[in-house]
Amino acid sequence: MIKPIVRDVLFLGQKSERATKSDVNVIKDLQDTLAANSETCVGMAANMIGYKKRIIIVNVGFVNMIMVNPRIVKKAFPFETEEGCLSLDGTRPTTRYKQIEVEFEDINFRKQRKKFTDWTAQIIQHEIDHCDGIII
User: Fold this and answer.
1) Active-site residue flag, 127
2) Which of 52, 57, 98, 118 has the fewest CB atoms within 10 Å around its CB?
3) By residue range, what is the domain housing residue 32?
4) Catalytic option among 17, 80, 82, 127
């Protein structure tokens, strides 16, 4: 189901809870909502559509990757940039890392550990910040 984008900074500023297999409906809603916003959005966190769950979706080229309970375990090469967000107006400065390593569960709740670089790494960092209640 396509959900409206949450713009309430008090809600967005709260940490998300660990997701479980009972949250598969959140995954489907994230997929539908990102698809509906694909012209202006390359990633989304569950709290952006009203769920305080640690689930993100990120466009990685030809596919949208679901990450359940993601956490960054390594990061390298910081840089300064500006980012926008569907939940906020305008852009804001932030520090990101060119290389990250993330532990997460995939759409089938199997544990994964992967390295990401550049643009994909930046998107993942932005969405994990959402899970942690960090607003750029």
Assistant:
1) yes
2) 118
3) 9-131
4) 127
